[in-house]
């Protein structure tokens, strides 16, 4: 359609020119003494048009001739710039492929090309960012090659280049994050934390930065900070639910282990949130630390109450090993147990009379209260059903002492024998 319109326009112009030139009888007389030259107006117009075209083409040709040196220089700059970007891409590809020596050479080549362009006063777009990335790639390659002096040198260049205003903030943040990661690889937690603290507040809450902060805090022994970071990562779903549960549980346990007296343990317990306090492993560890530090057993039992309620309400939700640990933790404080806890133990054993752990705990409670007959009955049942060697041994040892107090040496000998069988690897 466009070609047809152009063709119609050309026909129209040709028809207009033909009409004008065909009826144009004007002449132009040029006096050049002693001559007189008469020229047709049409011829003069054609000569003028031709002269304009010739002059226009001549000027364009002259301009093109004079611009050849500039075009040649621009072409050379483009070739060098392409070589720079090619070297930069080659460094990235070789680094991803694990060819670290080649990646370092390609990054050095990119830096050399950039210096050549700078010497030629060529304005390379985002030159500072290109230099920063080149130094970062060279540092990454040197780190993979265990060349720490070269890595640190390139890192300092990258940090100085990324400090310029023309470099995007994300580029500098990326350099700082890599520096923190390398510090963690060197087991230098202080340097890693210092790098992370240099980040803007928003960048510090990114998932990658939080992961690095978690590792650095754990390496530096800052358990509380590591726990707070793990909570943020779990909230951001940076881990699977199982992994987040395991990490938080381990950090909470470490935080409790750092306490060296009951007051410190109480303070550490207060730093935990409700979900962490209801973790069976955490509550059991806290109770064990309370007993080890000679704290108040009533406080330990209070910490264990949610776990006890869970075990009695849903026995299948607590593993056998945790049930054994809970039994051991409660057994330690039976000397000072109050009537309320005794009622809980008795009610739980009555509701689940076949549970050997509850039989053992109730039997030991009766033993502490000098209820010999009931203690013997419960401990005998527990001794026949307990699978944990330690509880099995203690149950039969208690029965052996009861038999000795009753003056029944045969029963005592049998009980001591059963206890010895537990020691031999029941």
Structural overview:
Residues 145-171 are annotated as: Disordered. It is found in: Cell inner membrane. InterPro entries: Heme_biosyn_assoc_TPR_pro (IPR005254), HemY_N (IPR010817), TPR-like_helical_dom_sf (IPR011990). Pathway: Porphyrin-containing compound metabolism; protoheme biosynthesis. This is Heme biosynthesis HemY N-terminal domain-containing protein. It is a single chain. This protein has 426 residues and is mainly alpha-helical. Among the domains are: 73-167; 357-426, Tetratricopeptide repeat domain (Serine Threonine Protein Phosphatase 5, Tetratricopeptide repeat, Alpha Horseshoe), CATH 1.25.40. Helix content is 78%, strand content 3%. The protein is built from 22 helices and 2 strands. It has helices spanning 2-22, 41-66, 68-96, 100-119, 127-144, 148-162, 169-185, 189-197, 201-204, 207-219, 223-235, 241-257, 262-271, 274-277, 280-292, 297-313, 320-332, 339-351, 356-368, 372-385, 389-406, 409-423; strands at residues 27-32, 35-40. Strands 1-2 form a two-stranded antiparallel sheet. The chain is rod-shaped, with a radius of gyration of 45 Å. The N and C termini lie far apart (98 Å). The model has no long low-confidence stretch (mean pLDDT 86).
């Amino acid at each position: 359609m466009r070609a047809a319109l152009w063709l119609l326009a050309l026909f129209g112009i040709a028809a207009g020119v033909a009409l004008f030139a065909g009826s144009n009888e004007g002449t132009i007389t040029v006096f050049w003494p002693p001559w007189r030259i008469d020229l047709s107006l049409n011829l003069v117009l054609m000569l003028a048009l031709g002269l304009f075209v010739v002059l226009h083409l001549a000027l364009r040709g002259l301009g093109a001739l004079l611009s050849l040196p500039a075009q040649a220089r621009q072409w050379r700059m483009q070739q060098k710039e392409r070589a720079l970007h090619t070297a930069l891409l080659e460094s990235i590809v070789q680094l991803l492929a694990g060819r670290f020596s080649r990646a370092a050479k390609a990054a050095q080549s990119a830096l050399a090309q950039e210096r050549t362009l700078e010497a030629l006063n060529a304005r390379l777009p985002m030159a500072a960012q290109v230099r920063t990335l080149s130094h970062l790639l060279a540092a990454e390659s040197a780190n993979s090659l265990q060349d720490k002096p070269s890595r640190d040198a390139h890192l300092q260049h990258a940090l100085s280049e990324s400090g310029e205003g023309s470099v995007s903030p994300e580029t500098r943040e990326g350099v700082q994050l890599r520096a923190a990661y390398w510090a963690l690889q060197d087991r230098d937690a202080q340097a890693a934390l210092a790098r992370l603290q240099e980040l803007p507040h928003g960048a510090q809450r990114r998932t990658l930065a939080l992961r690095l902060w978690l590792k650095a805090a754990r390496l530096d022994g800052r358990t509380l900070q590591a726990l707070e970071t793990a909570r943020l990562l779990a909230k951001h779903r940076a881990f699977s639910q199982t992994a987040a549960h395991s990490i938080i549980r381990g950090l909470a346990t470490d935080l409790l282990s750092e306490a060296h007296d009951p007051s410190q343990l109480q303070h550490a317990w207060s730093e935990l949130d409700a979900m962490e306090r209801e973790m069976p492993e955490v509550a059991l560890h806290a109770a064990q630390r309370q007993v080890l530090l000679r704290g108040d057993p009533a406080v330990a039992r209070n910490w264990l109450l949610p776990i006890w309620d869970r075990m009695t309400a849903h026995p299948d939700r607590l593993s056998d090993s945790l049930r054994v640990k809970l039994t051991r933790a409660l057994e330690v404080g039976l000397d000072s147990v109050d009537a309320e806890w005794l009622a809980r133990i008795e009610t739980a054993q009555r509701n689940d009379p076949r549970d050997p752990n509850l039989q053992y705990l109730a039997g030991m409670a009766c033993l502490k209260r000098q209820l010999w007959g009931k203690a013997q009955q419960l401990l005998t049942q527990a001794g026949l059903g307990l699978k944990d060697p330690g509880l099995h041994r203690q149950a039969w040892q208690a029965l052996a002492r009861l038999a000795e107090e009753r003056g029944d040496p045969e029963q005592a000998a049998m009980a001591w024998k059963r206890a010895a069988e537990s020691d031999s690897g029941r």
